[in-house]
Specification:
- It is a single chain.
- By secondary structure, this protein is an alpha+beta fold.
- It is built from seven helices and ten strands.
- The strands form three sheets. A four-stranded antiparallel beta sheet has the order 1-2-5-9, covered by helices on one side. A three-stranded antiparallel beta sheet has the order 3-4-10.
- Strand 3 and strand 4 (40-42) form a beta hairpin.
- This is CCDC81-like prokaryotic HU domain-containing protein.
- The chain crosses the membrane at residues 159-178.
- InterPro entries: HU-CCDC81_bac_1.
């Protein structure tokens, strides 16, 4: 495993690494991007970033390389220094340096540019997402979408609306007619009732003297009968004496 491959493996595990006397590599997570070169959409993933700094120092990378190559720490430091010196000389001479598996470093006057490679992310939200090619989507046979008959739908909805507009007022009027009859038709007149009560009273008052007359006539008849009876008894008594 070469040094650039060791740096990449360290980045995948820990996300950042100091390369002594050269700079700091790290992983930044980026959104999905459109690749204009081949007309594709790249899913969200990690991208390698780099900050040039010849003053940084650390033994972590050397220890990591020694562990993977099964060598001593001093031998790992020596190999790492040789590689870093080579990168510095080439960058100074050509103003351009491509680091295998990591990215491309370039100098523009006093400005440093680094275009890092993309890394597949292990985040569960993006795991398994693949590159999408727009050309393949355009060529795919998609079933045609049948246009909806909007005119029929409009008529049907309009008919339902008119039905509701007619039924609701009718139901409201029926409800008012049943519950609020006095408001719609006015209060009932009590004239007929008063006339009936008056006539009833007149009839009752007319019956009273008739009954009294009948009672009086009956009493007179009884009195006359009793007097006649008395007279007859007197006549019979006188006849018997003679």
């Amino acid at each position: 495993m070469n040094i650039s491959a060791c740096i990449l493996e360290y980045l995948k595990q820990f996300g950042s690494i100091i390369v002594p006397g050269f700079g700091v590599f790290s992983v930044e997570y980026s959104k999905a991007i459109i690749n204009s070169e081949n007309g594709s959409i790249l899913p969200p993933a990690g991208r390698i970033a780099f900050m040039l700094d010849y003053e940084v120092d650390s033994d972590e990378l050397a220890a990591f390389i020694a562990d993977h190559r099964h060598m001593s720490l001093e031998a790992s430091k020596s190999d790492l220094k040789i590689q870093i010196d080579f990168w510095k000389k080439r960058l100074k001479a050509e103003q351009h340096l491509e680091i295998q598996s990591l990215g491309v470093l370039s100098l523009d006057e006093k400005t440093i540019h680094f275009k890092g490679n993309r890394l597949e992310t292990d985040q569960p939200d993006f795991y398994g997402l693949e590159e999408i090619k727009l050309s393949e989507i355009e060529k795919s046979d998609m079933p045609p979408i049948e246009p909806k008959n909007t005119e029929k739908d409009y008529r049907f909805k309009g008919a339902i609306l008119w039905i509701f507009l007619l039924i609701i007022p009718i139901l409201g009027l029926l409800y008012l007619a049943y519950t609020q009859q006095e408001l719609l038709f006015g209060k009932k007149s009590f004239r007929d009732i008063s006339v009936q009560t008056k006539t009833h009273r007149i009839k009752d008052s007319s019956k009273v003297p008739m009954r009294s007359i009948q009672v009086k006539s009956d009493s007179l008849k009884k009195d006359s009968l009793s007097e006649n009876h008395k007279k007859e008894t007197k006549i019979l008594s006188t006849k018997n004496k003679h």
